[in-house]
Amino acid sequence: MMHRDRWTLRALVLGLGLLWSLPAAALNAGLNPPPPSVDRKTPQATVQGFLAAAHRGDYALAAHYLDLDYIPRAQQAERGFQLARALKFVLDRKLPVDVSALSKEQEGDPADARYDQLGTIPLQGNNVPVRVQRVSSTEGELVWVFSESTVRQVDPLFAEYGPRLVGLLPAFFFSDTVLGLEPWQWLGLLVTVLGSLGLAVLLERLVLAFARRVARWTRFTWEENVVSSGKGPLKLLTFSALLVVGTLLLRLPRPAQGVFIRIGYSLSVVALAWAVLRILHVSVAFVQSRVSSEMKDAARARSVSTQLVVLRAIFEVATYVIAAALLLIQFEVVRNVGVSLLASAGIAGLVLGLAAQKSIGTLLAGIQLSITQPISIGDTLITEGEWGTVEKITLTYVVLRTWDQRRLVIPIVQFLDKPFQNWSKGNPEMLGPVILQVDFQTDIDALRAELRRILENEGKALWDGRVATVVVLDVLDRTLTVRALVSVSDFSKLFDLRALVREKLVAFLRAHPLWLPVTRTEARPFPPPELDPARLSASPDLPPAPPVPPRA
């Protein structure tokens, strides 16, 4: 008995020795040898290499980063391909991986060198850890791969979070990736974009039709105009929402999903800004039409119209600024720049304030002009020696339409810094002079009577009957300056009445030639030879010549 036990012990020792002398079992022996490009020396290199290969669609290469030893060797190539693809899909959808947070050391995390954990994914009430673990490779060196426990959970995770179309589409749609997306996802994107566009058009028509029916219940036309202005912005807003929802259903990788979320967000901001601008335009036009039809005071109506135009410009600028800020704030680079600028807000504010002093002053002048309203749209002005009507007012300049149909663009600050004439302010009644140069012999009373006759006959439609005077305004060395003063109830008639009075008075003076101004000269004849003062002084027999009066 003891002899048999002794032989058994010897056989056991011999077997252990033979096992010890055999080479270690190869890692993933069912796969081809890994190429030199496969780097599995650190946790970070393993995860980074797996994601790079999987996103390229090279799932055969990505399988070398998985621990497949629990799978029979004959099935490792096929199952490794499938598991690598499924793990890539699950990580992209449910676990954003920060590769920089993983250990760069060959020994792994000093706190726990057994494994390095990427995170956990919820599955049926439990949290499945996703880890990379250090194991022995074929050459006997230690390498990092996704642990066996993690790989065993890939199929359940893919069944929970993977696409439902795997059994409905051919294998071609799941075999490769283009720009990080598989063919079925590209097909889904095409269907999503076209379907979202079609649904957006249909929903816009239905919503606008319902809104128009509701708007007809009121007696105002503003609601109908607002509903009509929603055509376009509503479609864009609906399309952006459907696009985001559709891409979420496609379960795209996080980078691609983030791109479509930003596109949807940007389109939504543009749609809302577009809608606000259209509603502003419709509202201002509606109020202006009501003011023009219901306000009897024309000056007050022009004042309200000017306020509406300037306020609309202010709100439009604010809408553009807010929309641009909302679009830019979604980018991390812009937010970082904004934080940096805020850190140096004192210096930046001073520099920008000095650089934009004139521009900011112009904008403030436009706002001040809309509040104080020294001018309004439609006012008649005289500025810079030009007579015209205010055609347009913006936050920076005013367009003046002159009497000869020219457009004079004037900086808005000029109306706050320099004097100008506004004929539309206050009472529209005005006085207008007609200046004439006449002879000293002119009968001023006859001119007064003629002025009265002209106003009561030819100028009856223009004259308001208040003022009709003729006065001698100045006495010059050769003529009299006469001023005929007339009045009108509306300044728009003043020019025509002055021109009429000037024409008729000139015709009246032409009928009295002696009243027209003339240039007078005085001629004196020379004395006869016998009365020449020089000869008289030389001859004592002749009487002295009379003195010659001095020339006037």
TrEMBL record:
This is Small-conductance mechanosensitive channel. The chain crosses the membrane at residues 184-211, 232-251, 263-287, 308-331, 337-356. Residues 359-425 form the Mechanosensitive ion channel MscS domain. InterPro entries: LSM_dom_sf, MscS_beta-dom_sf, MscS_channel_2nd. One of its GO terms (cellular component) is membrane. The keyword Signal applies. The lineage of its organism: Bacteria, Pseudomonadati, Myxococcota, Myxococcia, Myxococcales. It holds the Pfam family MS_channel_2nd.
